[in-house]
Design a protein that fits this description.
This protein is α/β, with parallel strands linked by helices and 279 residues long. The chain is built from 11 helices and 10 strands. The longest helix has 16 residues. Bound molecules: adenosine-5'-triphosphate. Keywords: ATP-binding, Nucleotide-binding, Transport.
């Protein structure tokens, strides 16, 4: 890879709008995701985190605006971007084994109909070992627990040739050991110079990232955690007064419950009120 390819940001978006049919899930947003390191996407339920991952993965086309992934349209970069979804759209009872699921990680490189080579098989075995699912290789995916399934999906992502990995809530619902396994993988991916983008509801996870994107129906802030996770930004994203002091990084005003109204805080984008959806 040339130096310029290495330094190309993982993603650059300008006026990016994302929608499902008539439903706009992200209003015009500008952000850059750096080439290396861990980026955490955080925001309330329904704020567009998974939608943004879908667009980075090339699964959801921009409605308008521009999005470059590794310097190309996302739909052309998908081979280099491993996407680990929250839950895969496999019908209940699909008779697919753990090994077959992990092997699917090789298809972007290999194509669907070409047989797996020895090096493909080595890569599959390596990924299954790393996620500690080798013992489950012949089990059907449908028989596994949620945490085991999550590890299988991450193994599939790592089996893919990639320079970036997108993880939708990778640590949610996992026991301590599984969470540690996946956390270690996030760090080793980072050390290998890959980009990791994950969604989370955990402020501590976001604080530990190199870069943070805060969402609320659009990208409210994007940058280093100490800038993005300010009290003011969190109040804008989650609603004024909804957070306890102990939740916040910067306790600059313990009287915030009686503080100024949202409008007085001068939100950067007034349209943010229109796009929160409660299920
Ligand atoms: N396939 C879809 N079709 C239509 N609307 C969708 C679809 N997926 C998500 N949405 C809507 O888009 C908005 C953003 O959803 P998204 O899943 O991106 O939020 P999120 O921040 O990941 O939420 P959570 O924290 O609950 O996982 C929501 O209003 C949601 O209802």
């Amino acid at each position: 890879m040339t130096a310029s390819a290495i330094d190309t940001p993982l993603a650059e978006a300008s006026g990016l709008v994302l929608a499902y049919g008539n439903h706009v899930a992200m209003t015009p947003s500008d952000f850059t995701i750096p080439a290396h390191g861990v980026t955490a996407i955080i925001g309330p339920n329904g704020s567009g985190k998974s939608t943004l991952l879908n667009s980075l993965a090339g699964v959801l086309q921009p409605r308008s605006g521009s999005l470059k992934v590794l310097g190309k349209p996302a739909s052309e970069a998908y081979r280099q971007v491993a996407y680990v979804m929250q839950s895969m759209a496999l019908p209940e009872g699909t008779p697919i084994t753990v090994k077959e699921v992990v092997a699917m990680g090789r298809y972007p490189t290999r194509g669907w109909f070409r047989p797996l080579t020895k090096s493909d098989r080595r890569r599959i075995a390596w990924a299954m070992d790393l996620l500690d699912v080798a013992d489950l290789a012949r089990r059907h995916l449908g028989e596994l627990s949620g945490g085991q399934r999550q590890r299988v999906y991450v193994a599939q992502g790592l089996a893919q040739d990639h320079v970036a990995v997108l993880l939708d809530e990778p640590l949610t619902g996992l026991d301590l050991v599984s969470a540690k396994t996946i956390d270690d993988i996030i760090h080793s991916e980072r050390e290998r110079g890959h980009s990791v983008v994950l969604t989370t509801h955990d402020l501590d996870e976001a604080r530990a990232a190199d870069h943070v994107i805060l969402m609320n129906g659009h990208v409210l802030a994007s940058g280093p955690p100490e800038q993005v996770l300010s009290r003011r930004n969190l109040e804008l994203a989650y609603g004024l007064g909804s957070l306890h002091d102990s939740d916040l990084v910067f306790i600059d005003d313990p009287e915030h419950g009686d503080g100024p109204a949202v409008d007085a805080l001068n939100p950067p984008n007034p349209s943010r009120h229109n796009h929160r959806h409660h299920h």
